[in-house]
Amino acid sequence: GSRGLGYQVCDDALKEMRRCPEKYHIDLPDRQLACAPIESPEGQRYLAGMRAAANYAWANRQLLMWQTREAFSEFFGKPWEKLQMNLVYDVAHNIAKMEKHIVDGQEKLVCVHRKGATRAFPAGRPELPACYRATGQPVLVPGDMGSASYLLVGTEQALVETFGSTCHGAGRQLSRAAAIKQHPSQAVRRQLEAQGIVVRATGRDTLAEEAPDAYKDVDRVVEVCHQAGLSRKVARLRPLAVIKG
Fold it and tell me: What is the DSSP letter of 113?
């Protein structure tokens, strides 16, 4: 993802937008909120900054994918094409999109900002790639390193209730600071190795921040989305494990 760049874009925009409610006569229910009309100079600057961060994130993921292909090719002694390591789907989990939705009975062009959510369009939407237009949008819901992640598909119900959106992951139940305090990195490493899951982290606290217990139960989270009709379950995916003979 964009990591620090995305944070900086948000931080810069917040400083500028604190004055916008008064400037544009917007009545907000909480002083902690900030906003600006999307067509205003402030709104356009924020949208441009977010797009720059998203472009950086897409390029970043392309590089990570290429390096993963190189590692697998070296280990198995085959080119990535022979290993069928093709890009299946790439999606941003924090991005604003200009989309057409039904609002108050009329189709309108709106800016949908998905933060902590991901797009879940049903089959037939013109925004979908041709290969997924007949099935609906793939929805990737990461869990944690010790349990599972899910593949779901978008639904018509999501268009009606959530502007075509569903959750983008299990979600944290411990902050990064709390996770570091409760889970020493070496203990997390041993826990994962006992399940045959090999991890590599360069930062001292990275493993602790991403400890399985720091996240909600992805099975329960996905079941809620499935039962609510916001996305439908397709497959449950487990972390790649090393089997020792």
Answer: E
Per-residue model confidence (pLDDT) at position 208 = 85
DSSP 238: P
Sign of CA dihedral 50, 56, 62, 64: negative
Measure Cα distances from 95 to 51, 54, 86, 137, 181 in Å. Answer: 8, 7, 24, 16, 31
Q: Which residues of the chain have pLDDT under 50?
A: 245
| pLDDT (0 to 100) of residue 166 | 95
Report the pLDDT value the prediction gives residue 197, as an integer from 0 to 100. Answer: 80
CB 164 within 8 A of CB 158: yes
Nearest partner of 147 among 118, 169, 165, 178, judged by Cα: 169
Given 93, 101, 113, 168, which residue is catalytic? 168
- Give the tens place of pLDDT for each residue, 106-136: 999 999 999 889 999 999 999 998 999 999 9
Rounded to a whole number, what is the distance in angstroms from the first to the last CA of the chain? 36
Catalytic site includes residue 168:
yes
